[in-house]
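Sample intake sheet
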Amino acid sequence: MPYVNVQITKGATREQKRKVVEEMTQTLVSVLGKKPEHIHIVIQEIETDDWGFAGMLTTDYLNKKSTE
């Protein structure tokens, strides 16, 4: 029973999340031969103040990019 945990920063639409679940499920079906009803996909949305990369918080990075 595959369990996939997807962590993204907040902002994805319901439709985008639906598509992520659909496509990840299909990948596990086609690659591993699993039944869709046995696949669990969990999407966790993280606040941009709680996610960092490139030495800064994502919020700061996004603000910097918008002023360039």
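Comment: The chain has a mean pLDDT of 96. The domain at 3-67 is CATH 3.30.429.10 (Macrophage Migration Inhibitory Factor).
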